[in-house]
Amino acid sequence: MAEKLKFDLVSPERLLMTAEVDQVTVPGAEGVFGVGPGHVPVMSTLRPGVLDVVENGTEKRFFVRGGFAEVNADGLTILAEQALDLGAIDAAGLDQEIKNAEEDAADAKTEAAREEAAERLAKLREVRAAV
């Protein structure tokens, strides 16, 4: 039997995945890197991007925004500020959210409201680019 990598993906809301996997591709702050069984220990911050998880030949994709990746002798743990299962995202619903956020940004009356709407819009567009 092929060696597996113990993998945990955790967001502030919940544990999204815990499994024995073949490989994980991580969007590190210094660049994308792959982690498989027996990987050397490393710690990295995350940039917004797609986390690709290969489990028994099947790929699962998650969008992560910020956080940390730790590889040690026990496996890989991702502590994400935000993590979304891309397979569960409704693209049409996301497009509508983007449209609503664009309208909110255009209708904002104060600088603070404009900045908040612009930040929300940027985050939604990051997710849309990943889908």
UniProtKB/TrEMBL annotation:
It comes from the Bacteria. InterPro entries: ATP_synth_F1_dsu/esu (IPR001469), ATP_synth_F1_dsu/esu_N (IPR020546), ATPsynth_dsu/esu_N (IPR036771). It holds the Pfam family ATP-synt_DE_N. It is a peripheral membrane protein. Residues 91-118 form a coiled coil. GO terms for molecular function: ATP binding; proton-transporting ATP synthase activity, rotational mechanism. Residues 5-83 form the ATP synthase F1 complex delta/epsilon subunit N-terminal domain. One of its GO terms (cellular component) is plasma membrane. Keywords: ATP synthesis, Cell membrane, CF(1), Coiled coil, Hydrogen ion transport, Ion transport, Membrane, Transport. It is found in: Cell membrane; Endomembrane system. F-type ATPases have 2 components, CF(1) - the catalytic core - and CF(0) - the membrane proton channel. CF(1) has five subunits: alpha(3), beta(3), gamma(1), delta(1), epsilon(1). CF(0) has three main subunits: a, b and c. Produces ATP from ADP in the presence of a proton gradient across the membrane. Belongs to the ATPase epsilon chain family. NCBIfam families: ATP_synt_epsi, PRK00571.2-4. This is ATP synthase epsilon chain. It comes from Tepidicaulis marinus. The gene is atpC.
